[in-house]
Input
Amino acid sequence: MRKLLRHVKVLNQSLTSLVLCSLLLLRISESTMLASATTTSCFHTSGSKILDSSNKVVGFSGLNWFGFETSSNAPHGLWSRNWKSMLNQIKSQGYNVIRLPFSNAMLKPDVNPSGINYTINPDLEGLTSLQVMDKIIAGADARGLKIILDNHRSTSGGGPESGGLWYTNEYPESSWIADWKRLAIRYKNNAAVIGVDLRNEPYGACWGCGDSSKDWRLAAEKAGNAILSVNPNLLIIVEGVSEYNGQYTWWGGNLMGAKDYPVRLDVPDRLVYSTHEYPETIYRQPWFGDPNFPRNLPAIWDKYWGYLIKENIAPVLIGEFGTRYESVRDRQWLQAFRSYIQQNELSWSFWSLNPNSGDTGGLLLDNWIGVNQLKQDVLKQIQYPLIKSRCTN
Output
């Protein structure tokens, strides 16, 4: 009997070991699958490049279509145009991405849009602002256009938020992060939404200073990781600040600190830095007075953010650049910038589609129909093809 019991005990131990090994192999298999999903699904990065789900390099060439962040709580132009025709025009002019600014205020469920002509946009009538955003994104997807959501400000208004931080008293950091998570979940299975620009032009912030109330790098990590926890396939787009170690440039354009203090995300290969650039008609930066202008400009761009590309550290998206393209020096600036974008194969989104941008005008003429052909002739030289990848995030 004791011999039989000993055989049973050995058999039980063997079965237990077999089960444990099977569970271990299953856990390893699941981990491998998860690692594969989080490193190769949808859009991801490698060095300074952005890749699709087939690991092919892609480029973004887009337009900013603003309005959701303003008091209208809707894309501008819908008072005179049909929203579908505007998307058709964006595609027909060769663009593959729309950067869509919005405010946190707009996301509230009881916020309704204004400035929409429902006679020519009957399918938008009765929709909240967020539901109108759903329509725009679905329409973009149907046309093969991609969307970058841009948290332009907290309250409704124009330009960056007063104070230049990612939060206000009314919209604290916790609300900002919660709103981003909500959007990440809302568009989780939408192939059009490929990236999130965490905050527009945080000019009042520092980079790497360690003060959690001002350190944009720490805030970007917190929000980026919160987003990736619910939607791990989105590109996390982080703009620069204004000043670093006494060196000033455009709001959102200073990424000098990213070299020593890079943004750290829990999901690898999702980080894209972003910068903004403008000509001297917006503000006369010191380098515009250099007698070597415009030949001095590439070194300026290298200094503040271009090194990230040159040193193969991370991709950089030119989130905004724009001009009325009327003065000789503005034309020289745009031609030089076009050449720099082309040489470094940069992704970009032009400011703006809208003609009612007071300091830059837009790609569209004031009638919201015609195209500024002089601008388009420059931009079409640096456009990329439509992005065929239709992975869902």
